[in-house]
Amino acid sequence: MKISIRMDDITPDMDWAKFLRFKALCDRYQIKPLIGVVPDNRDPNLHICESQEAPVEDFWRYIRELEKDGWRIAQHGVTHVYTTRKMGCFPLNRLSEFAGTAYRQQYEALKRGRDILRVHGVRTDMFMAPAHSFDRNTLKALRKLGFRRMTDGFGEHPYTRCGMVFYPISHSQASVLKNRGKAGYTTFVVHTNMMGDRDFERYEQIFSAHRDRLVSYAEVLGAAPARRGLCGAAKEYLMAAAKYALVDMKNRVNGRAV
To answer: Tens digit of pLDDT for each residue in 84-137?
Structure first.
């Protein structure tokens, strides 16, 4: 199975040292990730580096340069502030910026985010939901606004559902790395803001050991999607719910329940 990379939480005040460290790793192995850009970041947890400390003069120009260099861009929510505890269609988290809110409210918010990106010269038809959480109103609003692709779901190939093309993320990195000969594509989700030295070392080992399987996200976007029916959607939902339950149980054991 071929492996692509998506990088979440890209903002003007992200941890630039960590972002650039991971970018250098991607550059070394000649892979171009998908990056999720937050149009109007208001999440205090993502306010890490003050804007004047950023090593790039113009954040939006830098994003456009990455795109020209082959990186791909997704709209990553709007403000990245969680407003509900609904799990939505892909129940990996009990947090959401959108799931559980009215269609009109979601449409207006998503349109504002899309328009912010367009003002800065960034156009994309791909959406990346904060906390992987969205519902049918989210998908309806996205379609109305011209979005056609989602980076989420589980599976071995892109698939169509609810009028959108979904590009699956990895359910288990360890399982993907063991199944070297399996066909298909998956995406490893990376949050550089939260990475430590051990995480960087681990990804360097993965990239070195599996360099023949690493692909740029543009290749994933070129793969033909299959249609996913009700059985496939139900299986995916149960897999996500089970993964959430397992992570939640571990957090409770470690005293980190929310």
So the answer is: 999 999 999 999 999 999 999 999 999 999 999 999 999 999 999 999 999 999
Do 90 and 236 form a contact (C-beta atoms < 8 A)? yes
Rg, C-alpha atoms of the chain? 18
Its pTM stands at 0.94
CATH H-level superfamily of 2-227: Glycoside hydrolase/deacetylase (3.20.20.370)
pLDDT level of residue 161 (50, 70, 90 thresholds): very high
**Cα 83 from chain centre:** 19
CA pair distance 152, 17, nearest whole angstrom: 27
Q: In the beta sheet, which residues pair with residue 187?
A: 4
Query: Residues near 157 by Cβ (< 8 Å), separated by ≥ 6?
Result: 168, 184, 185, 223, 225, 226
SS3 47: coil
pLDDT digits (tens, 9 = 90+) for 5-49: 999 999 999 999 999 999 999 999 999 999 999 999 999 999 998
User: Mean per-residue pLDDT for 187-206?
Assistant: 98
Q: What do you get for the CA distance between the two ends of the chain, in Å?
A: 34
Q: Which amino acid appears at position 117 of this protein?
A: L
- Return the domain boundaries, the chain: 2-227
Helix, strand, coil distribution of the chain in percent, nearest 5: 40, 15, 40
* Helices assigned H by DSSP within the chain: 16-28, 59-68, 103-119, 136-144, 173-178, 197-209, 217-221, 230-253
Distance CA 62, CA 68 (A): 10
